[in-house]
Amino acid sequence: MANILLVDDAAALAELFGRAIEHELGHTVHTVVSLSEVAASLALVGDLDLALVDLSFPQEDGTGLEALVRIHQHSRATKLAIITQGDEWVAEILRDAWELLPITTVIS
User: Fold this and answer.
1) E-strand spans in the chain?
2) Cβ neighbours around 57 below 10 Å, total
3) Which of 30, 58, 63, 66 is the most exposed place for a label (fewest CB within 10 A)?
């Protein structure tokens, strides 16, 4: 079974999505709802197979790009995936992430 980190500021949606993955697919999902929690979570969860990261964190000073970089620095073997609603203002961040990191997929 895979060890997955889900980083999304929509707490209710992230928890629902995480539970669905655990229940339906049998994977372990660790949910993080703020960028400031990513580093601490990485220290606790150990090796990750997949990180699903939202790009939009409008209530914070950063974006999901910072989380993706931190995760990639923590473990280059972790597959990186972006989840986004595809808002126009996120397009540049998505392009930067795609060009800078080994993004496996984008889910919109």
Assistant:
1) 3-7, 28-32, 50-54, 79-83, 103-107
2) 21
3) 58
